[in-house]
Amino acid sequence: MEASRLKPQIGLLRRSSRGRALLALVALAGVVELAYAVVNFSAMPPYLRFELGLGAWVGAVGAAFLLAETVLKSPLGLLSDRFGRKRLLLVGPLISMVTAPLTVVVHHPLGLMLLRALDGVGAAALWPTIFAAVADVVEEKDRSTAMSLLNVTYLIGVAMGPLLGGLVNDLTGSRTASFYLASLLFLLAMVVCLVGVPARFPRHAEHHTDVQPPHISLREMWESAKMVPDTLLLGFISFFGIGMVMLLVKLYAMEVLHLSESAYGVLLLPPAVVFALASIPAGRIGDLWGRERAMRLGVGLAMAGMWFIPFVHNYWVLLICGCIVGLGYILAIPAWMALVSEIGGSRRGAVMGAVFTAQGVGAMLGAPLGAYLYDKVPIRIGEWVIPSHITPFLGTALALTVSFILTVWFFRDGRRVRRTDAS
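Predicted structure:
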């Protein structure tokens, strides 16, 4: 009788423990994403272009970050399977806490590329691990909803990063102050991880066995990648398009729309906050309506919105188009990550790493190409000339169109799950 009465209490304690772990992971992701947004999307592009006169290096410096992140995501995801999630979750913020202020004292482009590459190592340690950790914590039926919580942190970071970074720079009259702000945020992330993230995750422990080799196996990484070839292709193409514009949006706002740093942050904040709040119900749609359907609808909306953005210059019309893209994002990404998290078992971190690697390769190749097109390549069709600063946005729209076709072709309802089960 005593044992039977204790069972529900033990289950409740486990659910409570999982809830606390999930909350800590979401808080960690939120602080780190805010810090990365301050550095990547707010501080670095205008600092290079206007402070150091290295506008031609914007794409190369961004690509150094993406290259390191891309190359190491899969092996570091595998390391999180081997040695535990928490260790990897601490490494990322620690590295970036150091590289952010060093950026202020290093003015040579090759030195800046090295710092950004080190920053990429930190990001590679963090992101596959945190997605795998969330999948370890939650039940399978709730994974799309849980992934949407990470989506919330990304959107809040995208919204608040440019605003906080721009305000700090405008108030201090310096383009370097935001790097110190980012360093403090990375320090806060380490504190959150140390205090709130558990040392072991039950579902990770269930799959983990002592017979696993302690080293990183290239063969195992390859076997993990082969489990999700369609997802790798989709990740590469969609993030190739995203990479073409992700380092240029703030420069476009400042140079073409003539916004100050803080004004750009203010313009971005309201829709991003709305979408952050809507991410959880949007993620729930993937659990209730079907993850493949949510992916198709989300990518389709993002594609449609992006085709309008290059051709309008009115703030409010751009805001509407951006909202359509944002709605597509909050529908597609949680469902996509939930699908990936269902695959791999003991290799979940490695599979996540493989998908993030494909995304990173796409973004890494797209970023320098977009920066080159932004400055150098207008499009001429007869007497009609499309300015060069529009060209990368057209490339993004085209990449999202191809991605939408892939979601229709590869991700038919239930097909992914059945094929994985069969294997």
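Summary: The chain is about 80% helix and 0% strand.
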